[in-house]
Amino acid sequence: MAETASQGGHEGGSVLKSAIPILRMFDEAHARAFYLDFLGFSKDWEHRHDVDFPLYMQISRQNCLLHLTEHFGDATPGSGCFVPMEDVEAFHAELVARNPDNLRLGLETMPWGQQVKVTDPFGNKLTFCEQNAQAQ
Q1: Which long-range contacts (CB under 8 A, 24 or more apart) does 100-108 make?
Q2: d(CA 117, CA 122)
């Protein structure tokens, strides 16, 4: 049976890809320390319209892409982001080994899988989750 557009197929040659969350930040140094140094992401690129203008940048870690922005109106502070992943236990151990001063890093078992929740310096909540087979 042919797959319909509403079942995940596509019409007219268009193909949807993974969404890239845009997260608001207020301080470039704190953002770099949290996302690059602590979470282990890499900076892919950054952009400013002029020297003293707000920063917009893309960071990545493996297949996960995030956009961070200082631009007012691009995103709401305190947003949430769900990041599916594999081997969340190793990721949790990696974060704990960095000994964060003010983060309580628990490894939670939920009906949909195991997860680690972190909050960035700007109130954005990131949930890194290894989903179980029933949740995928």
Answers
A1: 100/38
A2: 15
Residue 38's pLDDT is 95
Q: Is 121 helix (H, G, I), strand (E, B) or coil?
A: coil
> pTM of this prediction?
0.86
d(CA 43, CA 35): 9
Cα radius of gyration rounded to whole Å, the chain: 17
Backbone φ and ψ for 11, nearest 5 degrees, come out as -115, 150
pLDDT at 31: 97
For residue 72, give the 3-state DSSP assignment.
Answer: coil
List Cβ neighbours of 16 (8 Å cut-off, separation of 6 or more). 10
Contact indicator for 42, 61 with CB cutoff of 8 Å = yes
Phi, psi for 87 (deg, rounded to 5): 55, 55
Query: Residues 59, 35: contact at Cβ < 8 Å?
Result: yes
> pLDDT for 25-44, tens place per residue?
999 999 999 999 999 999 99
Q: What confidence category does residue 9 fall into, taking pLDDT thresholds of 50, 70 and 90?
A: low
Residue 68 has what pLDDT? Answer: 98
